[in-house]
Write a structure and sequence with these properties.
- This protein is α+β, with helices and mostly antiparallel strands.
- It has a single domain, classed as Thrombin, subunit H.
- Helix content is about 15%, strand content about 15%.
- A four-stranded antiparallel sheet has the order 1-2-3-4, with no helix packed on it.
- It is globular, with a radius of gyration of 17 Å.
């Protein structure tokens, strides 16, 4: 099977994965996980933060795949961090002297895809 239906089933096969902005192919923003519920949600707290070297806006929706969180940032930079600890895995930064890229480089990026 191929196409959107197969892709949607593949995305839905791991209930803990958040591989698209809306978690699944339907963009439902719903997590079927049951560990956190209305009886214990107040016990959640701050886990970690990741500092970026930028002063521009950071409005990306991260995705999480196999424990790695990926997000895009200002100037076309893409970040990968450990989703559990926040430890940096790698950073990709496109370096260009092209005037056409430089004009767009400061624009806020909203997705790494």
């Amino acid at each position: 099977m191929s196409g959107p239906t197969a892709c949607g089933r593949a995305l839905d096969s791991d209930p803990g994965a958040w591989t698209t902005g809306g978690r699944d192919f339907r963009q439902s923003y719903y997590s079927p996980l049951e560990l956190i519920d209305k009886t214990n949600v107040r016990q959640l707290g701050f886990a970690w933060q990741y500092e970026i070297d930028a002063t521009e806006g950071f409005e990306a929706t991260p995705i999480v795949v196999n424990g790695a969180m990926f997000s895009s940032g200002p100037r076309g930079v893409v970040y990968s961090v450990d989703a559990r600890t926040g430890a940096e895995r790698w950073v990709f930064s496109r370096r260009s002297t092209s005037p056409s890229f430089a004009g767009r480089a400061a624009a806020t990026r909203r997705t790494a895809a």
